[in-house]
Design goal:
Layout lengths: L23 E5 L2 E4 L5 E6 L6 E2 L4 E5 L2 H37 L4 H33 L2 E3 L4 E3 L9 E2 L7 E4 L4 E5 L1
Antiparallel strand pairs: 1-10, 2-9, 3-5, 3-8, 4-7, 5-6, 7-9
Helix pairs in contact: 1-2
């Protein structure tokens, strides 16, 4: 019996990578609708549609004039409330001495106590109104919450926008992104 035939090969050293093909979908981690939080007319749009924007970049500005006026009104109301409180506190202090000496009735002194308490509440209400006016004024500047690509603007400069309006635009994060496959 003859010997079996043998094949001879030269062996080369080389890397062979694994190759896999998957169907996948890429998704942004963050997608947000940019919305107005106060009502007013758009006076500025500060981005190119479809372009990249940076975190905290000013995107839109709403007319500030009514909100500046509201802030000044709230500041004036707070000053008035503080003046009323000072007057009520002085009247209450005088009333303490007068009620002890019997020059005014307990009912009159109780009225002064009530007036002082109302003045304290008036100052607190005015402070809250001032804070609300400051917040509303800050909402006239609409900024990007993160870096990403901004879509088409739904509104143009001059349009009236507000909390119930459609989103002004959509911002999508580009880095990093999710890739999901099944």
């Amino acid at each position: 019996m003859p010997p079996p035939a043998v094949s001879v090969f030269n062996v080369n050293d080389q890397e062979v990578g694994e190759y896999h093909e998957f169907v996948a979908r890429s998704e942004a981690i963050d997608v947000v609708d940019i919305r107005a939080r106060v009502e007013g007319f758009l006076v500025e749009r500060n981005f190119t549609e479809g372009g990249l924007v940076e975190k905290d970049q000013l995107l839109y500005e709403i007319d500030r004039a009514p909100f500046v006026a509201a802030l000044k009104g709230a500041e004036a109301q707070l000053a008035s409330s503080k003046a009323n409180l000072v007057n009520a506190q002085k009247n209450l202090e005088r009333g303490r001495d007068l009620v002890k000496k019997g020059f005014i009735s307990q009912a009159d002194f109780d009225m002064q106590t009530s007036t002082e308490a109302q003045a304290v509440a008036g100052v607190e209400a005015a402070e809250a109104s001032l804070e609300t006016a400051q917040i509303n004024l800050s909402y006239t500047r609409i900024t990007a919450p993160f870096k990403g690509e901004i879509g088409k603007s739904t509104y143009s400069v001059g349009n009236l926008v507000g909390p119930t309006s459609q989103p002004l635009a959509t911002l999508t994060s580009m880095d990093p992104i999710y890739v999901t496959s099944r």
